[in-house]
Amino acid sequence: MNIPDISNLIYFIHFGTQENIYFSWKSKYSPKAFIFDYTIAKDAIKSDIYFHLNKGDVKIVYQKRNSFIYIIGGHISVQFQILEALLDHLSKRFMEIYGDVLFDIFHIGTDDFFKDFISKIEDAIKQIPNQVGNVIRAYCRICGKYVNVYVKKSMIEDAEDYPVALVYMHHGHSLLLYIDADFKVRGAEIVSITG
What we know:
Blueprint: E1 10-16, E2 21-26, H1 35-44, E3 51-55, E4 58-65, E5 68-75, H2 80-98, H3 102-108, H4 115-131, E6 133-140, E7 145-152, H5 153-157, E8 164-170, E9 173-179, E10 185-191
Antiparallel strand pairs: 1-2, 1-5, 3-4, 4-5, 6-7, 8-9, 9-10
Helix pairs in contact: 2-4
């Protein structure tokens, strides 16, 4: 099952360090500027795991790898796993292209330097979710129906044990899914959450 087009639901991407934002992209569909979110995220990140934040009608995913900070934000309807998959792809691609010269170009000026990368973002938003993830169906007994859940392929393929546990939060409750190596749901249960 393919993921619906989300090209108008991804709002912003920022890449940088504690000191500087090296790359910033904002969608024409974005309802506002999100530079402040970069400041919040860069101060909160302590390790290389993904952090998730719901902020009003925006979901934000951020991660720190080595000394670099990667942030993506989109509409509240976009699942966190999709945002993670896009961030994985774009951050790796960005470092492949610019990694060796990145710290030098910041002092030269970046207005036109990343112009080609912007087209890669727009292509990735349309293509990557279907290339690096699967949609699985799980029954939610609270909703009384099947729900579609996006799962990054790397989460399952790189797992050390099976089934892999994934919590899917939706409509005010959470569904704990157990997913096998073939992306089949082997169990699902409603779980309580706190924070």
